[in-house]
Structure formats: structure tokens, C-alpha cells
Design a protein that fits this description.
single chain; 146 residues; mainly alpha; 5 helices
């Protein structure tokens, strides 16, 4: 797969993932507070089911394409502290791994029935902040140097 196609696939999957989390954190969670508890629960169940079915393919595509892109920079990543590009790329990968771990935690908490509204809000906000960090680093990697 060409680098351009790999980058397009990665950016498209990232847009889907970030857009979904942004919608949940900034729009849905605030709007759902205005609904009656039964309606809120029903909306949460319906949207949660749909989000899980979409994320089942978005996440593997996002991370698979990300690995393919990182492979292109394996020489830089061999010693990430030797250059600003390598350092920022390593930080970006670290944030991406953290998001994946948090996503796995969400799946675990949901399957064990231990997910609470408070945990869900904190995890979603954390993932959103991590993604903003990744977006900044993705742009900064090729614009900043030291």
C-alpha cells in the first residue's frame, strides 16, 4: 500500500474516531442531561450499540494504518531522542497506546458491569485530551524542530 493511501486511511479512521469521541463528550453528554432518566438510558443503549459496531472496524483500521506509517519511520524511531521528529513521534505513539489501553478498559468495565456514568465521562474526557495531544504532535512533528 502506498504511503499516501496509508496516510489517507489513517487520517480518515482518526477523523471517525475523534469525531465520535468529540460528539459523545461535548454534545451528547451535555444534551442527554435534559432527558428523563428512562429516555437517557434508552438513548445511551442505542447509541452505545451503534458506536461499538462502528468502532469494531474503525479502531483496527486506525491502529493498523498507524503501524504501517510508523514502519516508514522505523529508523527515526530506533533512537527517538536523537531528533525532534523522533521524540514527537514517540510521544504520539505513547498517547495512541494509552488510548488503546483506555479503550480496552472501557470494554472490560462494560462487560463486567462495572462501568459507571462517572467513569465513562472521565475515560471519554481523557481519551479526547489524548487525541488532542496526538493531533498537535501530528502537525508539530514536521513544523517544529530543536
Amino acid at each position: 500500500m502506498s504511503y499516501l493511501l496509508l496516510k489517507f486511511v489513517h487520517l480518515t479512521a482518526a477523523a471517525f474516531f475523534i469525531g465520535g469521541v468529540f460528539f459523545e463528550v461535548m454534545i451528547l453528554s451535555r444534551s442527554a442531561r435534559q432527558l428523563a432518566p428512562a429516555s437517557r438510558e434508552q438513548l445511551s443503549n442505542v447509541l452505545g450499540t451503534r458506536a461499538r459496531s462502528v468502532m469494531r472496524w474503525v479502531i483496527p483500521v486506525l491502529y493498523g494504518a498507524g503501524l504501517g506509517l510508523a514502519w516508514q519511520y522505523r529508523a527515526v524511531l530506533h533512537n527517538p531522542l536523537a531528533s525532534s521528529l523522533g521524540t514527537m513521534m514517540a510521544l504520539k505513539i505513547g498517547l495512541a497506546v494509552s488510548i488503546l489501553v483506555q479503550f480496552i478498559c472501557v470494554v472490560y468495565l462494560m462487560r463486567t458491569g462495572r462501568m459507571t456514568a462517572s467513569r465513562s465521562r472521565r475515560l471519554h474526557l481523557s481519551v479526547l485530551l489524548h487525541m488532542l495531544g496526538i493531533l498537535f504532535l501530528a502537525k508539530a512533528m514536521f513544523l517544529l524542530s530543536w
